[in-house]
Amino acid sequence: MADSLGWIQDPCHLIDAVATETAQRRQDQLTKPRGSLGRLEEMAIRLCGMQGTATPSPDPVQILQFVSDHGVAAEGVSLYPQAVSFQMLHNIARGGAAVSVMAEAIGARMEIFDLGVVTDPGPIDGVRSERLGAGSGNIAREPAMTEAQLRAALDLGRAAVERALDNGARLLICGEMGIGNTTPATALACALLDLEPSALTGPGTGLDAGGVSRKAEVVARALALHVTPARTPLELLRRLGGFDLAASVGAFITAAQRGLPILVDGFIISSAALAAVRLNPGVRDWMLFSHSSAEPGHRHMMAALNADPYLDLGLRLGEATGGETLVPLLRLACAVHQRMATFAEAGVSEA
């Protein structure tokens, strides 16, 4: 498997240091006290460096929505039946889901993937059928994926980013949907961070304290079954992740290698971001972090990634909605950076 996935180790594109420095100088010359627009300034400067330009923009925004089921749902880790994944795939495609409404509102392109809901839905308008199986394996009892499935999921993410770039994308957001998927995300993060399940396990779809305790016990069983000191991050992804997580990892690595800025969503996608950075540390430079998830374990992943998310709105839906929420602020940051007058241009005295 390692030979066929050698591309994940290829170097990432370099941030343009000159564009970053030029953007910082411009911000310091705009008609405002230095730093007074706070993290809006940071957004614009980082995008300038990523895009290598004095006129940064998040547009066009490309959302990759990966839908798949997880065998661990059989352990009762969610309030919702697994049939909801199938139903939500249709809802997303019809435009009725939050991610769909928000994508239309911000004018983002969205590519929707059926990577393996349990019930094969057949052809659906607006959905790419890239099924890798009828859901991933139950990580409490077996590996999530075979080597072939892991390789295919990573390659799917890679190909999706290549298509997005061909269509002119300048910002990538990955989303996920699948009943039970906070459990593999938690298990993967625990394994990569060497933390106990109690530190990362949260309510997911709304579990009560007893449900969270049961979920943590399932994660503990998965860790006991799959985690050994000799196992690499790639092998841990295979054993503890799922089709959606692996496809997101492939997308993130490819985006960083091709110089496409990444806007990271919430808890589940952050576990994929963590895995991508463990596999290829250069990916971290290409990540912007949209929001702090209400899932309690999210802060541990953010600390490990040295990330300070821009928003804290109590979001825990996933599906790329947190990333979508930040896009209007990115646009404002870029507009101010490009169009605000400097002290010299406005004839305003500097401090």
Automatic annotation (TrEMBL):
**In the record, what terms sit under GO molecular function?**
nicotinate-nucleotide-dimethylbenzimidazole phosphoribosyltransferase activity
The keyword Glycosyltransferase belongs to this UniProt entry's keyword annotation = yes
What pathway does this protein act in? Nucleoside biosynthesis; alpha-ribazole biosynthesis; alpha-ribazole from 5,6-dimethylbenzimidazole: step 1/2
**EC number from the UniProt entry:** 2.4.2.21
Active-site residues from the entry: E319 (proton acceptor)
Keywords, A to Z, come to:
Cobalamin biosynthesis, Glycosyltransferase, Transferase
What is any one GO biological process for this UniProt entry?
A: cobalamin biosynthetic process
Q: Which reaction does this chain catalyze? A: 5,6-dimethylbenzimidazole + nicotinate beta-D-ribonucleotide = alpha-ribazole 5'-phosphate + nicotinate + H(+)
Alphabetized Pfam families for the sequence = DBI_PRT
Identify which top EC class this enzyme belongs to. transferase
Question: Does the keyword Phosphoprotein belong to this entry?
Answer: no
This molecule's function is given as: Catalyzes the synthesis of alpha-ribazole-5'-phosphate from nicotinate mononucleotide (NAMN) and 5,6-dimethylbenzimidazole (DMB).
Similarity field: Belongs to the CobT family.
Against NCBIfam families, the record matches this protein to: cobT_DBIPRT (TIGR03160), PRK00105.1 (NF000996)
Checking HAMAP family in the record gives:
CobT
Protein name, as recorded: Nicotinate-nucleotide--dimethylbenzimidazole phosphoribosyltransferase
